[in-house]
Amino acid sequence: MRIYTLWDHRKRIKWFLVCTFGAALPTSMVFSVFSAMQIQTLAAYSPFIHMCMVTEKPWALPVVLGVWVVFDFSLIILAFFNALEQPHQRQADVMVTLKHDGAKMFGCLFVLRLGNLIAAIVADAAYCFVTFTLLWAMCSIVTSRLQLRVERLRFSRFGVTFCQ
């Protein structure tokens, strides 16, 4: 929604976002089911630690993560092209526009998901699933902070914030 708003509610951008999300979600879900089915055969009980552990990574797991990395990368490209499309007097104004458009948020989520994808490709199963926990926690923090900032805007008028 933030990218759609940045592009002034253009239909072309709306359809691009709907189509890319509409392709990413079912693809991710299908490969998630494959991963879940395979993980049932790869899980084993360890009497040493008294719990189940995953001995290998499912082959479909990197595909699930890769889909969302590609989706995030397309969002970053759209935000970048929007910043370039705005009229600027200096090249530094492009960076200011990107910062205003939430480049830190998109960049942070992209780096977290890319790190998780790399761990799913090269690391063993234990590290792969530990990075999932970190990714989910960080995504929750980033989106919660964004929501709190949006809620804070309700209390501001003409650039003055009433709640500190």
List the helices and strands and how they pair.
Layout: H1 2-6, H2 11-42, E1 43-46, E2 51-54, H3 61-85, H4 92-100, H5 103-122, H6 125-153, E3 156-157, E4 160-161
Helix pairs in contact: 2-3, 3-4, 3-5, 5-6
Could you walk me through the main structural features you see in this protein, from its secondary elements to its overall organization?
The longest helix is centred in the N-terminal third of the chain and has 32 residues, at 11-42. The mean pLDDT is 77. 73% of the residues lie in helices and 7% in strands. The chain is built from six helices and four strands. By secondary structure, it is mainly α. It has helices spanning 2-6, 11-42, 61-85, 92-100, 103-122, 125-153; strands spanning 43-46, 51-54, 156-157, 160-161. The chain has one domain (2-154). A two-stranded antiparallel sheet has the order 1-2. A two-stranded antiparallel ribbon has the order 3-4. Helix 2 packs antiparallel against helix 3, helix 3 (61-85) runs antiparallel to helix 5 (103-122) and helix 5 (103-122) runs antiparallel to helix 6. It starts with a helix and ends with a strand. The radius of gyration is 20 Å and the shape is elongated.
Taking the alpha carbons of the first and last residues, their distance comes to: 27 Å
Mean pLDDT: 77
Percent range of helical residues: over 70%
Q: Strand tally, please? A: 4
Strand proportion: 5-15%
Which word captures the global form? elongated
**Rg for CA atoms:** 20 Å
Total separate domains: 1
Order of helices and strands: HHEEHHHHEE
Transmembrane segments: 59-84
Keywords: Membrane, Transmembrane, Transmembrane helix
